Amino acid sequence: MSVYKIVELVGTSPNSWEEAAKEVIETATKSIRDLRVAEVDKLDVRIENGKLVEYRARVKLSFKYEGTI
To answer: What are the structural domains of the chain?
Structure first.
């Protein structure tokens, strides 16, 4: 039997939602061990002065929980 923890992170990119989601995963794998699933939960953009300046991807990450509950 296993237990998994889910965390939510937001990645950003000036170019695309795909790059924003990729940034989340690449950054998370530096500090989260045994990452199992990444689920893109929400996509949005940041606008400044009427122009799109940033794509944002909210991603839920699942990894095996090894601590005590």
So the answer is: 4-64 (3.30.1660.10)
pLDDT digits over 24-62, tens only? 999 999 999 889 899 999 999 999 999 999 999 999 999
Comparing C-alpha atoms, which of 48, 35, 40, 44 is closest to residue 13?
Answer: 44
**What's the order of all strands across the beta sheet hosting 4-13?**
4-13, 51-64, 35-48
The single residue listed with the structure tokens 């061990």 is 33
SS (H, E, C) 15-65: CCHHHHHHHHHHHHCCCCCCEEEEEEEEEEEEEECCEEEEEEEEEEEEEEC
